[in-house]
Structures are given as structure tokens and as C-alpha cells.
Amino acid sequence: MVVGIQLATPLVALISMTIASLLLIQHWRCIHFNSMKLLIIYTVIGIPIGLLMLKGLYEPAMKLILALILVGFSAYKLAKPKLFHLVDDKLAFLFGIGAGILGGAYNTNGPPVIIYGTLRQWHPEQFRATLQGYFFITGTITVLSHGLVGLWTTSVWFYYIFSLPMVFISIGLGRIFYRQIPINQFDNYVYVFLMVVGIILLFDTLT
């Protein structure tokens, strides 16, 4: 909403990769490696499609799609609908490609992967570790892809370095909140916040 999507996307990719690498150091032993491997392979297929969208579409259209994704995903998580469960990784390609497209275009590859992990009924620690392992590897690929298509600008690196102190502080605060607030309640706070951001972005795009 402030700096524009072609600056925000590579910036968020760099920050996300930094956060994932720090968290992965602590939890890598709990990773569900087979699922993570398949999701990464299919995400790599989807990333170029997302990059073409980022380079080709007008920014208002990109913002509108992103706003709808944020609102829709937050509503899904808050409603907690009872869905079917996946007993294997046969549908990993569907969620992986979708995540790759969203990751290349907006660096928001999380929703499809989070839904997939929920359907696979991973244990909470396994869920967290697998996501961080996935985000680290796909984040690295996405960051390099952004560099290859010319999205690494002086402004991107300036904002990245400028934001690092707050990133480190936020990780520490997140650990404190994780221990103090019931996880379901904390998740709801996050999704309400995301929904508000999505609505503001939607309003900003349409006005």
C-alpha cells in the first residue's frame, strides 16, 4: 500500500527468507521431508507463471487479486470449516503450483501450503517445521528469481537492511507471545489483522 507491489514483493521475499532461516535452525528435525520435497518441486514450476504476472499486469489488478486472497484466506481460517483429509501426497502438485504462482507474483505462497498441511493433519511441531523448511528453500528460489528478472533495486536493498532490526525484535516478541497466548487465540488475532489489511487494500485499489 505504501511502496508499490514491484518493490514490496522482492522486499517481503528477502525478509521472509531471513525469518525462515532463523526459525529453521531450531526445528529442522521435525520436518516432513517427503511432503516438503514434492511441494517445493511443484512450487518451482509455478513461480515463473507468477513472475510473468508481476512483470506483465497493471499494479491495480495485482493489488485487487492480492486483497481478495488475503480476505478469502483469512475468512477460511477464521471459519475453520470441516474439510476432507489427505492421507498421502498425491495432490501436492495442485497446492504446490498454486503456491508457486502466488509466491512469484506476491510472495504469498503461504495460503495453499498451510491449507495442504491442515488437510494432511501434520502434528503442530511437524507442521511448523515443514512450513519453515519449505519457506526457506522456496524463498531462496523466489529471491534469486526476482534478481534474474531485474527486481533487485537499490530501494529494495535499502528497505531490507533498514527493516532488519525490527525483524529481529519481532522474532523475539513472537516467541514471547507464542508462550503466553493460547495458539488458537493468537492465530485468530493474526487472521483478523490480515483480513483488515486485505479490506483496506481492496478499498485502496477500488477508490
Question: Can you summarize this structure?
Answer:
The protein is mainly alpha-helical and 207 residues long.
Structural commentary:
It is found in: Cell membrane. It comes from Thioploca ingrica. The chain crosses the membrane at residues 6-25, 37-54, 60-79, 91-109, 129-149, 156-177, 189-206. Belongs to the 4-toluene sulfonate uptake permease (TSUP) (TC 2.A.102) family. There is one protein chain. This protein has 207 residues and is mostly helical. It has one domain. The protein contains eight helices and no strands. The chain starts with a helix and ends with a helix. 31% of the residues are buried.
Give me some keywords for this one:
single chain; 207 residues; mainly alpha; 8 helices; globular
